[in-house]
């Protein structure tokens, strides 16, 4: 079983599955196929791989109207207008995800029995986004104390202060994603600031230092890249301070080992991830 809710541009929601006025069949939440771009090989069989990418996701709905048919149809018009973006919220036993798109078509014949609305929605961002973004912290404290436990007389350590600044960050999605990195200075930090993904050697480096209580927010998602400093109530764009060899860090599915070149006793580092899925 699944639950499907749609939200319109006015933030109104309509439940399409737990609703006596509708019987809904939804397609398009399954895994997608990719478009593979190749060039015929001039020296042998087959071809040379160039690139691959996912196309738009097409979500289609067949909604059989029940109850007050006229009112049920008019309610759908409010949510499936071709002029505005809509968002689907899909939930089953294992996942809670959402995705946004635009209505391509809405076909409904009022003059037939078992009146059915056939709706097509194009989602130009094809990945399904987790409803619960992950916030993980780079920390030099290694946890030891876990429940259940039995504590001997001599006691047990609750944690350990590590000498390095490396932390495993988990991306539980099925696709590499960017992240939001929030740096908060608990002390004075000298330039440069550098965060490295030790799995692939990629790093993001800023040629700037930080004063006490400064906050730097770095966004590395492909379509939302930015780096900004917040100091004494003012916002400063740090694009000019990004070093030439820097990469906008992408986190692989599974474990990523991130390190920072500053002491974590002076710098708080939070990593915000929104896992992305190819299907439910």
Highlighted features:
280 residues, mainly beta, Elongation Factor Tu (Ef-tu), domain 3, Jelly Rolls, nine-stranded antiparallel β-sheet, six-stranded antiparallel β-sheet
What does this entry look like structurally?
The chain has two domains: 3-130, Beta Barrel (Elongation Factor Tu (Ef-tu), domain 3), CATH 2.40.30; 134-277, Jelly Rolls (Sandwich). The protein has 280 residues and is mostly beta strands. The protein has one helix at residues 69-79; strands at 3-7, 13-15, 22-27, 34-40, 47-54, 57-65, 85-91, 96-108, 116-123, 128-130, 134-138, 141-143, 159-161, 166-171, 180-185, 193-197, 203-206, 215-219, 226-231, 234-237, 254-260, 267-273, 276-277. The protein is globular and about 75 Å long. The strands form five sheets. Strands 1, 2, 3, 6, 7, 8, 9, 10 and 23 form a nine-stranded antiparallel beta sheet that branches. A six-stranded antiparallel beta sheet has the order 11-22-15-18-19-20, with no helix packed on it. It contains one helix and 23 strands.
Instruction: Let me know the largest β-sheet.
Output: 9 strands, antiparallel
- Structural class by helix and strand composition: mainly beta
Could you say what the CATH architecture of the largest domain is?
Answer: Sandwich
N-to-C SSE string, H for helix and E for strand: EEEEEEHEEEEEEEEEEEEEEEEE
Write down the CATH topology of the largest domain: Jelly Rolls
Total of DSSP H or I helical runs spanning 4+ residues:
1
Percentage of β-strand residues: over 45%
Ends apart, CA distance between termini: 12 Å
For the record, what CATH class of the largest domain applies? Mainly Beta
Overall 3D form: globular
Q: Using the CA coordinates, give the radius of gyration.
A: 25 Å
| Beta-strand segment tally | 23
Mean pLDDT: 86
Number of domains: 2
Helix content: under 10%
Q: Low-confidence stretches at least 5 residues in length (pLDDT < 50)?
A: 140-145, 157-164
